[in-house]
């Protein structure tokens, strides 16, 4: 049995490529890096990699992480500028005995020394998004931070080797140097090949308050199905944040166990995810959540899929 699960529709093409490797008895590490790179390289996905939305100083700072569920090797980078594929830098760092999480200039020096591709990650399209948002904040009193869709994935290969990975440009117009949950083990991601893995997307500042990816893996280890584990963890953190702070930010989690069973839970409307297994071709699901905290899935229609891509690739005009 093999499989992959990932946050958001934007992961579909990457998951498809990753699964092409898994079908041929490929390694979960290679599959997940290939899949994430596909998302990082596509300029129209504005919350990951090339074309990612910039911070308040109009700089693109990227975060990424990689974890091996068999060895517990992990690597992560945060606030990296001008490198094409932060996921590959993170995976390379996972091979080090120490210095596994590098940030900013230190991460960039490591990447340069290791020969990773330098690239200006700020596109003209992202500049237009930035300038339009500055005007919207001033004129409409909108919050600047909308647009923080991390791509997070879990992969399982036929040798029961599991990996988890994330990549994001973080909050749109964030403070320079801000880091969310994505590169933080246990919050943005966690995987154990003897149990399963999980990954998160949403408001990092709130996701970190629950170490929620680790919690989902822990619950699966106690015998919960991935769906039950996701709903239990998300609903508990959502309720606890509301009780203690009056509100909860966006919390969306995906998970897969080492049998290829999967689950997803969210506290928002409009969440989508991609899943593929030996028995199911790469499929986009849309999620709705009822008043009891139960999540329900439906396969995205062709109309929804067409509209998704048309919206993201439509020409932009500076306001």
From TrEMBL:
It holds the Pfam family Asparaginase_2. The record marks 149-150 as: Cleavage. GO terms for molecular function: hydrolase activity, acting on carbon-nitrogen (but not peptide) bonds, in linear amides. The active site is at 150 (nucleophile). SUPFAM superfamilies: N-terminal nucleophile aminohydrolases (Ntn hydrolases). It comes from the Bacteria. CDD domains: Glycosylasparaginase. Substrate binds at residues 178-181, 201-204. This is N(4)-(Beta-N-acetylglucosaminyl)-L-asparaginase. It comes from [Eubacterium] hominis.
């Amino acid at each position: 049995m093999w499989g992959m699960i990932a946050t958001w529709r934007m992961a579909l093409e990457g998951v498809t490529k990753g699964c092409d490797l898994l079908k041929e008895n490929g390694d979960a590490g290679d599959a997940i890096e290939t899949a994430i790179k596909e998302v990082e390289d596509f300029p129209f996905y504005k919350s990951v990699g090339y074309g990612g939305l910039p911070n308040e100083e109009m700089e693109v700072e990227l975060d990424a992480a990689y974890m091996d569920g068999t060895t517990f090797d992990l690597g992560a980078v945060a606030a990296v500028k001008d490198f094409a594929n932060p996921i590959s830098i993170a995976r390379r760092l996972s091979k080090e005995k120490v210095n596994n999480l590098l940030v900013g200039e230190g991460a960039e020096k490591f990447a340069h020394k290791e020969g990773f591709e330098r690239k200006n990650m700020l596109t003209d399209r992202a500049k237009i998004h930035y300038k339009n948002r500055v005007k919207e904040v001033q004129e409409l009193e909108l919050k600047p931070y909308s647009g923080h869709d991390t791509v997070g994935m879990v992969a399982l290969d036929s040798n029961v080797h599991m990996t988890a990975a994330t990549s994001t440009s973080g909050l749109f117009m964030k403070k320079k140097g801000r880091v969310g949950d994505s590169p933080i083990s246990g919050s943005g991601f966690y995987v154990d090949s003897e149990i399963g893995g999980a990954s998160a997307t949403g408001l990092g500042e709130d996701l970190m308050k629950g170490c929620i990816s680790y919690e989902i893996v822990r619950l699966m280890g106690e015998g919960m199905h991935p769906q039950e584990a996701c709903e239990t963890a998300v609903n508990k953190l959502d309720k606890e944040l509301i009780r203690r702070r009056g509100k909860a930010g966006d919390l969306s989690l995906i998970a897969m166990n080492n049998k290829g069973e999967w689950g997803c839970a969210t506290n928002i409307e409009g969440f989508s995810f991609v899943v593929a297994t030996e028995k199911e071709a790469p499929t986009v699901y849309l999620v709705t959540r009822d008043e009891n905290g139960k999540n329900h899935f439906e396969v995205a229609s062709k109309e929804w899929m067409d509209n998704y891509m048309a919206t993201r690739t439509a020409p932009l005009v500076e306001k």
